## 1
Amino acid sequence: MMADLGKPMDLILWRHADAVDGIPDLQRELTPKGFKQAEQMAAWLNARIPDDVRILVSPALRAQQTAAALNRPFTTDKALSPEANAMALLLAAGWPDAGGTVMLIGHQPSFGRATMLLLAGVESDMSIKKSGVVWISNRVRQTTQQNVIRVLMSPDMV
């Protein structure tokens, strides 16, 4: 399906920050290091994302805490749960036809697999560091749809 020429889309995948180990998995919270990572990456993102960004967040506590660092409204979406697959993420985001900017805050390995699917056309593993960001734009040039990587950022580079 071709994206509308007038509606380019940006997809931002933000992996949750560093979290404690343990169970139940959905109740794992951020470590002090994780809170610092989330705050630093949120400041970097807030300087660059538009005011009308749509933010969808995994129901896992560590993802909710990561999202809270943005101080922006967000929607919790079960489609971004830790066991989500790459296609579920893209469907939740409305990729590539929703237009505008959509940020997903969630988990590995689905974020890495979605990134590889968009960039290489094959769902395969790719590691994204905790609190790392992948920013991909979709555009149409002439009659060709293109996915363009804008940012691959890890928290230690902020």
Note: Strands lie at 9-15, 54-57, 75-76, 100-106, 133-141, 144-153.
## 2
Amino acid sequence: MSKENPVSGDRLRSFIKRIEKLEEDKSSVMEDLKDVYSEAKSVGFDVKIIRQIVRLRKIKAEDRREQEELLELYMAAIGE
């Protein structure tokens, strides 16, 4: 950085600490997700399907319908 805009060590340290905390939180959440999927699998649910449902539920219903229609159209086009 130039002399007119020196690096603020305190501000930079603050950003780094916040990022590190979020990374820790992310690791914890990822471990919790792994545990929940494992628990679901242990009682007989298909985790692959659960992941697909979670992914689909993030999509707006109208967008999901459009995707399903395109999928059907493309599958028909290749004879499947």
Note: Residues 9-42 form the longest helix (34 residues).
